[in-house]
Amino acid sequence: MKVKVKSWTAVATWRWIANDDNCGICRTAFDGCCPDCKMPGDDCPLVWGQCSHVFHMHCILKWLNSQQVHQLCPMCRQEWKFKE
Amino acid sequence: MIKLFSLKQQKEGESRTSGKRTSAAQLRIQKDLSDLNLPKTCQIEFPDNDDLINFKLSISPDEGFYKNGKFMFCFKVSQNYPHEPPKVKCETMVYHPNIDLEGNVCLNILREDWKPVLTINAIIYGIQYLFLEPNADDPLNKDAAEVLRQNRRLFEQNVQRSMRGGYIGSTYFDRCLR
């Protein structure tokens, strides 16, 4: 039997690989977006700290920008350093 | 992909025109409230059911110095929540080393140790803890702290007298027994 493919439709799913399901700051799913965004994905990325805690980038930046003296991880209070 | 992109732009347009939408603070507070797991000594009340960011908490300790008392707290959550802690005031006059006579509450997580991963639940447990373990080392009511440090027995009597309604020194406390 000979089959000829006339057309095909690709479907893909994606998700962030993080060690938790929800952002500790806004409490929405990592696979969703922060409350200031409309669409999940590259526009509302996750970031990791060297302490291994993960947040929506927008959430953690808002927190770090509001801290005058020390920039600490909201989870473990270690100094926040972005993981390269 | 192109379809997704145009959908994105369309959505962004919508959000600008639709005007009033639920704020980030409201979304977060909704989650906090639905995840509440309160001890049986604590209750929250909403004076206005459509307003989730202003509410009252009552604590009726079932052990410790303040057993049988009932203390009301007022929570005001700002639009910056959870990046700022809620403002919490005690509405019941209480003789307590960590609560002053204006109702200001000295609890680390309401001030310098606040962090946005904390929740309303954590604050309620923090306040409840103050009633179980008043802390004389970090006082707002220095007189009460001094008595607690020097003479626990007298402190206990003062707490009892204040909760029954009466004077401690020159300050009158309204009755707040259950």
Automatic annotation (TrEMBL), chain A:
One of its GO terms (biological process) is protein ubiquitination. GO terms for cellular component: anaphase-promoting complex; nucleus. GO terms for molecular function: cullin family protein binding; ubiquitin protein ligase activity; zinc ion binding. Its main location: nucleus. It is found in: Nucleus. Keywords: Cell cycle, Cell division, Metal-binding, Mitosis, Nucleus, Ubl conjugation pathway, Zinc, Zinc-finger. Belongs to the RING-box family. The mammalian APC/C is composed at least of 14 distinct subunits ANAPC1, ANAPC2, CDC27/APC3, ANAPC4, ANAPC5, CDC16/APC6, ANAPC7, CDC23/APC8, ANAPC10, ANAPC11, CDC26/APC12, ANAPC13, ANAPC15 and ANAPC16 that assemble into a complex of at least 19 chains with a combined molecular mass of around 1.2 MDa; APC/C interacts with FZR1 and FBXO5. Interacts with the cullin domain of ANAPC2. Interacts with UBE2D2. Together with the cullin protein ANAPC2, constitutes the catalytic component of the anaphase promoting complex/cyclosome (APC/C), a cell cycle-regulated E3 ubiquitin ligase that controls progression through mitosis and the G1 phase of the cell cycle. The APC/C complex acts by mediating ubiquitination and subsequent degradation of target proteins: it mainly mediates the formation of 'Lys-11'-linked polyubiquitin chains and, to a lower extent, the formation of 'Lys-48'- and 'Lys-63'-linked polyubiquitin chains. This is Anaphase-promoting complex subunit 11. The lineage of its organism: Eukaryota, Metazoa, Echinodermata, Eleutherozoa, Echinozoa.
From TrEMBL, chain B:
Residues 1-24 are annotated as: Disordered. Its EC number is 2.3.2.34. The active site is at 106 (glycyl thioester intermediate). The keyword Zinc-finger does not apply. InterPro entries: Ub_conjugating_enzyme, UBC, UBQ-conjugating_AS, UBQ-conjugating_enzyme/RWD. Pathway: Protein modification; protein neddylation. Keywords: ATP-binding, Nucleotide-binding, Transferase, Ubl conjugation pathway. SUPFAM superfamilies: UBC-like. The keyword ATP-binding applies. It catalyses: [E1 NEDD8-activating enzyme]-S-[NEDD8 protein]-yl-L-cysteine + [E2 NEDD8-conjugating enzyme]-L-cysteine = [E1 NEDD8-activating enzyme]-L-cysteine + [E2 NEDD8-conjugating enzyme]-S-[NEDD8-protein]-yl-L-cysteine. Belongs to the ubiquitin-conjugating enzyme family. This is E2 NEDD8-conjugating enzyme. It comes from Strongylocentrotus purpuratus.
